[in-house]
Structure formats: structure tokens, C-alpha cells
Hints:
Number of helices: 3
Number of domains: 1
Largest sheet: 4 strands, antiparallel
Shape: globular
Oligomer: single chain
Amino acid sequence: MPDVLLSLVVPARIAQDVEDLFLAHPELVGGFTTSAVDGHGSAVRLVAPAELVSGHAPRVQLQLVGSLADLQAVLARLRESYPGANLFYWIVPVLEAGRIA
């Protein structure tokens, strides 16, 4: 059973690249889910004129479950591949996971 859930929020402009990185490492990432979200608050860098007007920025949230060691390796690859990209993440324990088929 997976140990943890990694939630990662990335700028929409690099989301496909991050997805490709995940897909290139099936030994670390068995699967993941994506959702379109908007980033709000003082920690969100607003760059495009539309973002400055609206006060939020388009982001993609990716969620994946796995072992803590594997997901820390994923984060290390992200740090290496996307320095300064303003990625936000959190890791929480998974109490139970499964598939209802």
C-alpha cells in the first residue's frame, strides 16, 4: 500500500513537461491525477497581464500516491529540472488506498 500522497501545484505552462517527466519514470510514478486550479495569494507570482488583472494564475495540480522514498526522488528530479519554477507541494500520509472495480 502507498505510504503518502504527493500534491504538486505547477504553473500551467510547464504542466505538460512535468507530466512527461512523471511518465518517463514508471519506476517512481505508477500513475497520477491532474486538475486545473488557480493560484491565489502573496506566494503566487503573477506574470502575465491577465494574471495581474484577475489576481490569480492558472495552475495544474498533480496528485500521486507512492512510497515516501519514491516521491522524494520525484521531488529531487523536479528540483533539478525546474529550478526557480515556483512549484508548490505537500506530502500527507495515506491511511488507505485501493481500487473498486
